[in-house]
Amino acid sequence: MALKSVESQSPRVVGSPDASERDLLERIARSKDQAAFRTLYGSYYQRLSRLLARMSVRREDIEEVINDTFWVVWTKAGEFRGASQLSTWIIGIAYRRALNALRRAKIRPVSDEPFDEDSISVMSTDAAETDGQWLALGLTRLPVEQRMALELTYTLGHSCEEVAAILDCPVNTVKTRLFRARETLKQVLPGLAGMPGEKS
Known about the structure:
The chain is globular, with a radius of gyration of 18 Å. It has helices at residues 6-9, 18-31, 34-54, 59-76, 86-104, 131-139, 144-155, 160-167, 171-192. It starts with 5 loop residues before the first helix and ends in an 8-residue tail after the last helix. Helix content is 64%, strand content 0%. It has 9 helices and no strands. By secondary structure, the protein is mainly alpha-helical.
């Protein structure tokens, strides 16, 4: 099946309830229903694109990772047992495929090492910059695993338990990453905007 053409053919179904998505998956598992597949693919395409971009996956690799993810969904739909949210399963597949892409690109996907605060310069502090742009810039200052914890929790609305399942780590590790990410952003964001940050 040519997955690359699916995104342009499928309608956007944003925020589908888990029960509806499971019904789509069951139709794929039962009869290889291509209409159900296109709908499910369309409902996840933007979410996964954003997530993979946050992981620093190269733009040219994002489409491949999404296609690889949905090839797994297509071929293994019948193996989903419902122990988690369907979104947890699909995003977990995408996360693991993205790690492979990062390794191929020789980008270290996870780092607990402190990063150099002076390694990134900001050329403009124009007042027209939006809060969203500052936040996006601040997120680039975080290690990838902290970025993912924030994105999965606050943007995609997953619980810490679901994030732990996606990232294949203990729940306490997720909580630690969220705490460190928030603390780092409190320090970094004011500086990016040309204001004094919080003192430790």
